[in-house]
Amino acid sequence: MSAPEVLVHRDQDLLADAAAARLVTRLADAQAARGSASVVLTGGGVGTAVLAALAAAGARDAIDWGRLDVWWGDERFRPAGDAERNETGARAALLDHVPVDPARVHPMAPSDGPDGDDPEAAAERYAAELRAAAGPEGGPVPAFDVLMLGMGPDAHVASLFPGLPALRDERPVAAVHDSPKPPPTRISLTFPSLRAAREVWVLAAGESKADAVRLGLAGTDPEQAPVAGARGRDRTLFLLDTAAASRLPG
Fold this sequence. Notes:
This protein has helices at 12-34, 44-56, 86-93, 119-134, 191-194, 210-217, and strands at residues 4-9, 37-41, 68-72, 74-76, 146-149, 173-176, 186-189, 199-204, 235-241. Helix 1 (12-34) crosses helix 2 and helix 2 runs parallel beside helix 3. The strands form two sheets. Strands 1-9-8-5-2-3 form a six-stranded parallel beta sheet, sandwiched between helices. The protein has a three-stranded antiparallel beta sheet with strand order 4-7-6. It is α/β, with parallel strands linked by helices. Helices cover 29% and strands 18% of the residues.
């Protein structure tokens, strides 16, 4: 796993703009090198702000949207179109405004989807879709070009919360029950899937995230601070505003 790098921006708006610009460059470079690219989206305030900034960016068309695979790191197990779903926010902020190929957009199943109200089956369905997309790479998941993660004040990433069994799950996707943050039932990529990404970007803004950022960079046990276990194969970036970085040493 790569050692984390820290980049600090003055406020959340500048952080979102900078992350969007970085995302354009990274995905366009991946498409130039390999013909296609893949990104894993996150929800939350900062994650959604990055998508909105990307939608508004003049450079967004440097990405060939028809050759981009879009995945999610986690999802609230709610009905399709529910305002709490990360997919709903991502479509409103970005995906409804760019010419993505619908067949290459891979949302996690909703609670009124093909598996009904069975999050375990929905998690396995997503794992199967990831395995199919991995193709000749041979792993359980693709080597995502960029995997973005928001982070909670409790240092959770995706829907991997401190002390919950999903932290130790070796399957690529897990159902999460009794989440301490509502809604209680979720679906999440697990650590093996997060660490398959070429680059992992942790996005954090606000003083409420400062302690979690410090723990994530201090080698804390991921059981206590899951963000400490979020690392990319080639690169790990902590993209922060000044408030989220305020308790880092030096």
